[in-house]
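User: I'm putting together notes for a lab meeting next week and I want to include a structural view of one of the chains we've been expressing. I don't have a solved structure, so I'd like a prediction I can at least talk through. The sequence is below, exactly as it appears in our construct file.
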Amino acid sequence: MINENPSISTYLFNIILDLPLEQYFTYSSEVNLAIGQRVLVDFKNKKMVGFVWQRTVKEDISYSLSKIKPILYVFSEIIPQDVLGLIKFAAHYYHYPTGATFFTAIPSLLRKPEVIVINSIKYVSLINPEHSLFTKKLGKNQLALYKQLQNGTLTISAVKELLGASYLKLLDNWECLGIIKIFSDCHKLSNPIITNKLPLNQEQSNIVSQLSETFAIAKPALLYGITGSGKTEVYLELIEQVILDGKQVLVLVPEINLTPQLLDRFKKRFSNVQMHILTSNINDKARVSGYLEAGYGTRQIIIGTRMAVFTPFKNLGLIIVDEEHDSSFKQNESLRYNARNLAVFRANYHNIPILLGSATPSLETLYNYKLKKYSLYKLTSRAVSNATLPSIKLIDLNTTPASNGLTNIVIDSIRNRLENKELSLIYINRRGYAPVVSCYECGWVSHCTSCTGNMVYHNKDARLKCHHCGFTCKLPNACPKCESKHLQAIGYGTQKIEESLEQCFPEARILRIDRDTTSSKLAWDILYKKVHNNEVDILVGTQMLTKGHDFHNLTLVVGLNLDSGLYSHDFRSTEFLFTQLMQVSGRAGRGVKPGEVLLQTHYPHHELYQYLIKHDFSGFANFLLKERKILGLPPYTYYALFRASGKTLDNVMEFLNAAPKK
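Assistant: Thanks for the context. Below is the predicted structure for the 662-residue chain, given as structure tokens.
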């Protein structure tokens, strides 16, 4: 029992709670606790989970010690010091309450007042690795399993992946024959089994050697490689070195839909290495399991989206941020942070190397290279032999009008690919059927009633949806303002382009990929397999298709509705547009077949398009940096966004106008 009145033998701790405050609350315990330990306390007659933040002594207490409540329960989980340091930095740098930052950074199950039980990992190993008299009777997969076991210990899950549903029967049989032993809690991980290594080209090999030599310096490194240059293979080579050295690796990716294909490559390369995916697609139990096991040291590779940057590690040796330029690394609600920047801070804290990879690095990262804070390594040719960058052509919409969003040049090019059984990708970065609905009579526009955005029309369910705040409603039968029946959908979204393509090519197998079609957990995996099994002729999608995907039969990319990014209130809009177009263009011609990119625009002479058709990313980046410097914009200056929200626009504007201007 914990004393109600703390005595000289009682320990006092400041506990951090899930509250939007910079305040800690003091509780007592008769046993000494670790900093970062999870506990249960009584806060205003409510049981709440907290974490030990600091030790304190009674001399620091300015009120009666009798008011200090005892800690009700002590859990086993402890958040390590390095993660606590990262949380402190994030709270300070991003001006967010420490308590709210802490509880944002941990898995949801750790926030609940429940005991967490992690099932121990079961392992399989050969009793006599030299014994092979019975291998002549084994099938192909069984023989592959036996050979892998000769190289080291495997987990039950790795065996299941190799053998499928028959794995339990086989393991029972081998265990009865005394061929294998099955056990739990293997604290010493077996030596990694390295398989399916692809030969590196000379450029890749040189960069791996150079990066390996600089690991001891632990200076952030930028791997700038054109699309299809084989950056992932460089990652794998470096990861192999780190895990062979007994250390762990964190790989951050911007999107959930990138993890299945990346994980597949990792599993083929490291067949017995303990990996875990940390994304919002996995359930709460799996998330907390991978999170804690990485801290125990029993997970060697963690692949995750932005929240994975807060994962504890026992012996972290390398951080990789793939597609480092991507805006998905930014969290834009509650704790607003950039996982790439936190990863750089964390690497510096541990004094370990961090590799930032991209075909279109952000201007901030390039600026850090110019300041000599980062080192730069370049991959300038495609990894597949004879594969070249696609040709990029501009279609002037001023002289070549489009019908239903598509010009005749585009339609003829798609038809040509269909005849050659090649894949086409139609890129339009706007989901839904039409960006806005308007009244023909009075000019009413479908503005969102919850924010200032426009409501997008989705024709599949006849609803208006706001893509900013998430508000949805049914499409009205008549104009809410004048009751006219003449409502019109203005502009194009992925649904409308899909409909246009179905009319032009009724026999084609068309697949739309956007947030609406990939909302379920397994949706992207299913769609991805369809594409790779050549069950799709035309892809229609948003920026989800611009990131890291490798479709070897894709030879045509078409860009629609691009010009909206040229003139925007956001000073980064042209950078984002150029990045998206470079990335989506890079999907074409990654195999032996040449690729072509067609971009429909009203402004073919704009600097952005002129740099783009030459694949001159460096030239455009330097052009933008000069422009930013002249205008006094980031990365040469710091900007802070002061944002207010409220139920009415008048109240918000009154508050903003009253806010200090300096």
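A couple of points you could mention at the meeting. The CA atoms of residues 159 and 167 lie 7 Å apart. The radius of gyration is 28 Å.

User: Perfect, that's what I needed.
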